Amino acid sequence: MQCLAFICGGQPAPKPLVFAQEEQAAVDAACKLMTNFEKVVQDICNTGPLALGGGQITQDGLTRVDPKYISHVRAMVKATCCGLLGKEMPGVSTSEEALVWNQAARFLGLRIQGSAEECPGRAPDMSPAVAAAMKKVLAKIEVGYKLMSNRERIVNDITNPAPKSQQELKRVDSKHKQVVDAMVSEVTNRCFGKATCEPPAGEQAMVWAAAANFFAARIQEPSDWKECQSRGFPNRKSDMTPTAAAALRTVLGQMEASILLKCNHENVVQDIVNAGPQALRGGQMTQLELKRVDPKHKASVDNMVKLVAARLSGTAVSAPSTAEEAAVWMQAAQYLSKRIQSSPAECEGRKADMSPNAAKEMRSVLAQIEAGCKLTSNRETVLKDITNPGPLAVKGGQLTQLHLKRVDSKHQAAVDAMLCEMCSRLFGQKKSEPSTAAEASVWAQAAVFLNGRIQGMAYECPGREADMSAAAAQAMRVVMAQMPNQTKTISAPATALCQAVGQI
After folding, report:
1. Which of 178, 358, 417, 427 is the most exposed place for a label (fewest CB within 10 A)?
2. pLDDT digits (tens, 9 = 90+) for 137-157
3. Phi-psi category of residue 248: left, alpha or beta, with phi > 0 → left and psi -120 to 50 → alpha
């Protein structure tokens, strides 16, 4: 494989890079919520028929909260402000409060309008970015308190020996009810961003994985109504909003994938470095079109697989120690991503390794590792290319892709700092950000150039090999879009808002 083949030429049309200002959007969302605090609370509890400002109530298809619970709703909105500002959210003390918080968060998450198209005839409440930031926090509250207020019912459903619906989904034997209860408790904690324990070992770990598999498939969001209707259950209501369902499925997918990878660690490593001709358990090897890793690199592959499991469980971050190891990790990540089988149809005669939901989460981590390793093993060349004044290319010949604007070579140190930070974030750890507005501008210029230079598919630039997989290219672009952010510049207004929240 070439070292970032984009150095060799070609002129793919760069996709515009939209910089993500997530921290600023969250502060703006908190400010919006604080400014309209009482109106929001009153709207959540407005049972109609008139809207707060007069006229007919809108979005009457959304279920509001009984006004007698207004104090609980006020507490939920206050907690949302805390979450938007990166502060610990206060919790609830009773299951009744948990249910109210869930209902209020669900209503507000559906009520927020970030574009005119979402509710024709009604002006948007805020920008799409600010709406997304608020919905993200509300989803965390909605799903966390949904699980908390329905924990016993959820556990009973997962272990139900005689289900009336979705009988095609494999439930967990009722003898494991206590183990499933512990698993649901940990899922709840992780939905709040607080991983408190690792799955148990052995058979109990596989129970957690099976329960996560079932639960992720069981969740119903509003868009699933047609599927439920076709299965003969037209009156089954959605469990949660799409944003909340996505957040819960992410946690469940990460849990399932992490457990299965840990329980099959040695087999996975052996398969990645299997030189053949026999498969691990005998018989002919399958998927021979995939390139395995030389067995001499088994120790490095072992480290990479451990990292993937740790990243999925949110317990650790790590990076390759050398450029050589980075190249091995990249090859192993590419192989494992393609090797994962999430349905029998993907490889006839071979059972699925995990659910599609778990495979999605594992592939996401593998794409980040692949991108991070590609950049780590080629950082010096990439740096020279970004700051190359020409007229010759880094490896000789004429400079190509002249339509892309490179960065002045005097900023080489700042660009190198950005590339180092990109590697860190792709491996799961944020270490630094631009220290000045001028440095942020340099990081932005470098990101725009690199965005246009990356090739994740051969067709993007005919005659030139792709630099990495399409998933890895996308993972790198996601990180690039975050690079120019200066969170320190928003600390003062965030602190002021935090003080205001405390006075509510």
Report:
1. 178
2. 999 999 999 999 999 999 999
3. alpha
The pTM of the full predicted model, rounded to 2 decimals, is: 0.87
Q: How far out from the chain centre does Cα 44 lie?
A: 29
Contacts of residue 473, Cβ cutoff 8 Å, sequence gap at least 6: 371, 454, 455, 456, 457, 466, 467
Domain spans of the chain, in order of start: 5-18+379-489, 36-116+125-149, 151-223+240-253, 264-377
User: Is the peptide bond between 120 and the residue preceding it cis, with omega within 30 degrees of 0?
Assistant: no
Degrees, nearest 5: CA angle 419-423-429: 125
Alpha-carbon gap, residue 7 to 191, rounded angstroms = 42
Give the bridge partners for 50, in sequence order.
56
pLDDT tens-digit series, residues 280-331:
776 777 777 789 999 999 999 999 999 999 999 987 778 898 999 999 999 9
Tokens of 229: 């209707």
Task: Name, in order, each residue with C-beta under 8 angstroms of 327's C-beta and a sequence gap of 6 or more.
Answer: 373, 377
The end-to-end CA distance of the chain, in Å, is 59
**Where does residue 486 fall: left (phi above 0), alpha (psi -120 to 50 degrees), or beta otherwise?**
beta
Distance between CA 390 and CA 67 in Å, rounded?
69
Contacts (Cβ under 8 Å, ≥6 apart) of 298: 269, 273
Q: Which residue has the tokens 């009520």?
A: 111
